[in-house]
Amino acid sequence: MITHRYAVIGNPVAHSKSPLIHAAFAKQFNLEVRYERVLAPLDGFSATVTRLIAQGYKGVNVTVPFKFEAFNLATQHSNSALNAEAANTLTFAHEIYAENTDGIGIVRDIQENLNVKLAGKKILLLGAGGAAQGVLHPILEAHPRLLVIANRNANKAFAMAEKAQSQPVFSHISITGQGFENLETQAFDMIINATSAGLSDSALPISHAIFSKGGLAYDMMYGRETPFMKEARAHNMIVADGLGMLVEQAAEAFYIWHGVRPETRSVMNMIKQLPSPSLEQ
């Protein structure tokens, strides 16, 4: 039986749970899959990909800080990658094909695993970097009533919101951008933290007014109780971390590569026994 080789590329990457997740997925289908962690130099992503292709790898997942480079290196792009202008999954065939499974992962986790629908909701997205861009379109495609993008640098939030609002398919959704300091007057049904503040246990400069009792506070970090999660819990919100998103985005990448969709709940339970803080693969 031929063993196909895949990897996750990042810097740092030693913390990644992706090899464990993909091994568990492969076991479900009796597939021979070799999946590794690859540390790429900060200035050596392209050279690392070229080396892996020459060594016969079939594809890679991409984590920080290389998602934008992965997008630019690819010669073909899915709509998900084009919308995010970033890629977390590359497939090597005759060309390098880029996809972004982050948005599918978070929407599937919220709606199917947590059983919280996004349609008609007032949603706040904290952050305007690559993590936020990766999930923006799939969240909007779930038809919330309104979406506010907030960021320390308000101009980045304005630009993200303006670009999304300009697309006719989202014209029925109120999409706005603002700085953290302007979050004072509105409570939200759902708050998604796409910032990296939890990595340093930093509290975000956000008003308590945004928290809505019984609403969902979702931190894309996993494996630790972040200051954002603690504050949301103190205001009686339902709190979830990004473990489900991690596993669901990996399942989508696995489907792209192997044509079969793995069961995810048992894998989430397995990873819960080995918590580790991360925003990514």
Notes on the structure:
- This protein has about 280 residues and is of the alpha/beta class.
- Helix content is about 35%, strand content about 20%.
- The protein has ten helices and twelve strands.
- The protein has helices at about 20-30, 45-55, 65-75, 80-85, 100-115, 130-140, 155-165, 225-235, 245-260, 265-270, and strands at about 5-10, 35-40, 60, 75, 90, 95-100, 120-125, 145-150, 175-180, 190-195, 215-220, 240.
- The strands form two sheets. The protein has a six-stranded mixed β-sheet, sandwiched between helices. The chain has a six-stranded parallel β-sheet with strand order 9-8-7-10-11-12, with helices on both faces.
- Strand 7, helix 6 and strand 8 (about 145-150) form a beta-alpha-beta unit.
- The longest helix is centred in the last third of the chain and has 16 residues, at about 245-260.
- The mean pLDDT is about 95.
For the biggest sheet, the summary is: 6 strands, mixed
- Unreliable runs, pLDDT <50, ≥5 residues? none
Number of helices: 10
Order of helices and strands: EHEHEHEHEEHEHEHEEEHEHH
Task: List the topology elements.
Elements lengths: L3 E7 L7 H11 L4 E7 L5 H10 L4 E4 L4 H7 L2 E2 L1 H6 L4 E4 L3 E4 L2 H12 L8 E5 L3 H12 L4 E6 L2 H12 L8 E6 L10 E4 L22 E4 L7 H8 L3 E3 L2 H16 L6 H8 L9
Parallel strand pairs: 1-2, 1-3, 4-6, 7-8, 7-10, 8-9, 10-11, 11-12
Antiparallel strand pairs: 3-5, 5-6
Please sum up the structure shown:
The protein has 281 residues and is an alpha/beta fold.
